[in-house]
Amino acid sequence: MISQTYVSRREASAGFVRNRNIVRHTKRNLGSISQTIIVAMLTLVFGLIYVAEGTKATSLDYQISDVESEISEMTARRDDLAVEKARLTSVVAAKNSTVAAAMEDAVVTGYVAD
Fold first, then answer.
1. CB 3.0-4.6 Å disulfide test: which of 34, 45, 48, 60 passes with 30?
2. In a domain? residue 59
3. What value does the mean pLDDT take over residues 21-47?
4. How many distinct structural domains can be found in the chain?
5. Which residues of 69-79 are buried (b: 16+ CB within 10 A; e: fewer)?
6. What does the pLDDT look like over 58-74, one tens digit per residue?
7. Domain that holds residue 95
8. Is 49 part of a structural domain of the chain?
9. DSSP state letters, 9-62
10. Is residue 22 assigned to a domain?
């Protein structure tokens, strides 16, 4: 009896092994131009982020400056009103005092001519 052995074509050829890919991948590297473009884009993105944050800080600084100027204006207005209140209070107190009631009104009697 003749014994036949069956051999697949893969096992028969020299370079193939079972359960292995027969495709060999070559490692791909980025070229120098691609690397330069990537570095430039990253620099641009980080620069834009830096400028945006700087602009935000400046905007907040202007807002704080506006609020501080409003506070100083309100403080000056309050001081002016306190002076006005003291003046009006003193005028009312002077009108109602007994010393002021006993005084006579001033009258212009005449002028001296040279």
1. 34
2. yes
3. 86
4. 1
5. eeeeeeeeeee
6. 888 888 999 999 999 99
7. 32-99
8. yes
9. HHHHSTT--TT-----PPPP---HHHHHHHHHHHHHHHHHHHHHHHHHHHHHHH
10. no
